[in-house]
Amino acid sequence: MARHKQYDPVEEISAELDISSLIDVTFLLLIYFLVTSAIQVRETDLGMKLPAALPGDTQPTIEPMFIKIDAAGTIFTGVGASQQALDSDTSVRSLPMLTGQLDMYASAARTANNTPLVQLWADSGATQQRVVDVLNALASQGIQSVTFTDLVD
Length: 153
Prior knowledge:
Elements: H1 20-36, H2 41-44, E1 65-69, E2 75-77, E3 84-85, H3 96-111, E4 117-122, H4 128-140, E5 145-148
Parallel strand pairs: 1-4, 4-5
Antiparallel strand pairs: 1-2, 2-3
């Protein structure tokens, strides 16, 4: 009689993946990308010179440029009869017409050795994004002297 060895049936080995170390690596990569990402300078620091609390003794030697933003987001320049509507489409954030006028105004002021000066009025119904778009247009032309003012008729 032959001796038969009886073996226990081989258990199926289930393949498991230990993901605890992968979670650690994922969080380390997330922290790395958050720390090394750069903040857009355009949105964080415009470098505007805001007016002082008290009026200065000297009057500016150049007429300021008046910019008005109404409740619908339309941008106007000038006052009174010389007021003209420029950019009215609020979906266009680059403000090409305003940028063109700011370029002409800033170059004329700098040619006369003056600092370009802008007075800005925003309607209470205007969106903050539209005001930021105007400030970005001013910063792109290098205009740093900006005053928020009451409506000038």
